[in-house]
Amino acid sequence: YQRRVHGQTTMGLSRDDAGKFLTQYIVDGILEKDPFKTLDVEGVGALIEMACEKGRNVRPDLKCGVCGEHGGDPESIGYCARIGMDYVSCSPFRIPAARLASAQAAIEMDEAAKGV
């Protein structure tokens, strides 16, 4: 529920209405990707990162995560890992891809930390 609210409020889009024009927005370059499937890291992602950071300033043990379509999207999973989110949650049929994306993100971050 919260993820959907963030995306709809930040971009002013309703999933119910967006189906009528979203594909054309992507074709015309107004949007790079479907924001209901892949996090817009510059907009919604920045707000999520800020929320996690500010929340953890008050409560260091705060667990932050993402669910739904974004929780099963490899690109979104990589972003969530890079900003230090604790978990992603997705539908059962997306679990294999989500696990692979999580592992790849962990390897990339480990290699970056080692300077590889």
Please explain how this structure is put together.
- The chain is mainly alpha-helical.
- The chain is 58% helix and 5% strand.
- It is built from 6 helices and 2 strands; from the N terminus they run ααααβαβα.
- A two-stranded parallel sheet has the order 1-2.
- β1, α5 (74-82) and β2 form a beta-alpha-beta unit.
- The relative contact order is 0.11.
- Mean pLDDT is 88; it is low at 1-7.
* Percentage of residues in helical conformation: 55-70%
* Strand arrangement, major sheet: 1-2
Briefly note the structural class of the backbone. mainly alpha
Shape: globular
SSE ordering = HHHHEHEH
Mean pLDDT: 88
Strand fraction equals: 5-15%
Distance between the termini: 39 Å
Largest sheet: 2 strands, parallel
Task: Please tag this protein with its features.
single chain; 116 residues; mainly alpha; two-stranded parallel sheet; 5% strand; globular
Task: List the topology elements.
Elements: H1 2-11, H2 15-18, H3 22-27, H4 41-58, E1 65-67, H5 74-82, E2 87-89, H6 95-114
Parallel strand pairs: 1-2
Helix pairs in contact: 1-4, 5-6
In short:
By secondary structure, the protein is mainly alpha-helical. The chain is 58% helix and 5% strand. The protein has a two-stranded parallel sheet with strand order 1-2.
